[in-house]
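User: Please go through the entry that follows and flag anything odd:
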Amino acid sequence: MGLGEETTEVEKVSLEPQEDPYENKITLFEATEMLLDEGNIDKTFICEGTVVKVMEGKGWYYFACKTCHQKTGNENGRPTCNNCADDFEGEIPWYRVSLKIRDKTESAVVTIIGRTLERMLKMTVDEHIKLKERCEKLGEPEKTMRVFDRIINKTFLFKLLMTEYNITNQSDNFKCIKVFPPKSSGTPIPKAGEKRRVLTKPTGPKTPLKKNKNNVVISDDEEPAEETDKVLEEKMIEDKNGEKQAEEDGEKQAEEEDEEQDN
């Protein structure tokens, strides 16, 4: 198999088909509303979203303990795991990537690690690292990230976890537990007469607590108002600011998780 090609081994593994994720699916806007209640800490929920961007922050993989998959430390030049201690069996590379996803109501960032991302990309992290090394030798390091193009504009269902970090920081950067394939290639269109959310203006990826949060109107028959050039410009600025904030939130959350593992 050539470098950069899909791996057959991972391709055979399904994306968590054991449960029906459509039972209690919510929108991303409803997910941000959950940030208002501390009682939602440690709750899981499922959202359908389309991957629109890979958030580049602290890299796309780290070295993890073979057993518990926590980030390894270093002691006297040797890898260690505070969690496994004397039972530590070595380290392996492990995916950790934040994706910006969007549905018809809102956008958010989800952080996906390990085998789950391998199944989505149909490439193991080891193969990806080999591709990275080859691209660097050829003087074309930018081609390393093209692997992630496989999931751009693809729709999935994400099982997400509401953490204490999310509530405390009012952050819509969620930790992903599982990924499911959608029933269709895109988000289902509401049936006639079915209530749906109409955005009077573009809403940024921030939570309802933000001052610049726009109102969402529930309507049976209204259509989104045509966006003027000014509104489109505002939307681009909001998206850019939102992406910057999401990257900062992701890096801060990753640093806090790493500190917890080190302790």
